[in-house]
Amino acid sequence: MGKDLADRFPAARQTFEAIDDALGVSLSRVMWEGPEDELTLTHNTQPAILAHSAAVFAVVQARLGTARAGAGHSLGEYSAYVAAGSLSAPEAARLVRRRGELMHEAGTKRPGAMAAVLGLDPAAVGAACAEASGDDGVAVAANLNSPDQIVISGDPVAVARAGEGCKLRGAKRVIPLKVSGAFHSPLMAQAVPGLESALAAAPFATPAFPIVANATAEPVRTPADAVRTLAAQLTAPVRWIECMHAAAALAPDATFIELGPGSVLSGLLRKILPGTKSITLGTAAEVEAFLA
To answer: Is 193 buried (19+), middle (13-18) or exposed (0-12) by CB count in 10 A?
Structure first.
């Protein structure tokens, strides 16, 4: 996870080292050597994904120039602020590590569940969640990833009912997710005050370009709005479909560039805005080809 970048590019290696120093642990060692059960702890997974994205950006920054807009999915929104010069990579890593700790604590105190719903539109998923919610639990549409991929989140009993409701409405599949909490749902409310404190203490600068916020699907241009929307993100749905439309409106005919591990966002983009150009930069080979 990013080791090929560190081996090939000094800027990437320096980014990983700076994040290790900021966290006081060798996160890069866990990323590259494991054990896997340590890497998959949310307080390690979140800064690890950010570190990978930030390392790619450090290498390609000069080639990219200044973007016209940015966005990130869930914790990726912090990486977007790094790319916009609003946060340094070490500061962002500290924030997402704290975010992961708070989310894990909230999930321990009030266990939750999440499930991916495939082949059903957002309105129908929302209706199934509303029908399934009651005195014994709540279910919500948490990640509106694409027109036919929605993640639901909430109390286990309500999520199970909502999943059955989605099947009755024509969903192709409902897939339970292995998670440590009901993210982007009201069950994360107890994590909000702690994150608000961490965000308030972080040295945000004005982003060089607007970042489309998950919670509002609107462009953020000031540090105050960045702090507000990142705190709201814990309990609000990730409105990714709207975010991609908003980013495209800010930068018509632009090429979307996905920085970090995998190509999930590029795949979602093809479903949201067919025909939109995108580039995935995550491996050393992909970065070398882009720079060439």
So the answer is: exposed
**Is 74 among the residues known to form the active site?**
yes
237: left (phi over 0), alpha (psi -120 to 50) or beta: beta
- The CATH class of the 3-107+187-291 domain is alpha beta
* Choice among 52, 86, 184, 185 that is catalytic: 184
d(CA 185, CA 166): 18
Q: Encode pLDDT of 242-251 as tens digits.
A: 999 999 999 9
Nearest residue to 86 (alpha-carbon basis) of 230, 232, 238: 230
- For residue 173 the two structure tokens come to 């599949």
Give span(s): CATH 3.40.366.10, the chain.
Answer: 3-107+187-291
Q: Evaluate if residue 65 carries a pLDDT over 90.
A: no
Give CA separation, 267 vs 166, 248, 261, in Å. 23, 16, 13
Q: Where are the beta strands (DSSP E) in 127-271?
A: 139-146, 149-154, 173-176, 211-212, 219-220, 256-259
Which of the residues 74, 79, 88, 133 is marked catalytic? Answer: 74
The backbone region for 260, taken as left when phi is positive above 0, alpha when psi lies in -120 to 50, beta otherwise, is left
* CATH 3.30.70.250 residue window(s) in the chain: 113-178
Whole-structure pTM over 0.90, yes or no? yes
Known catalytic residue at 278: no
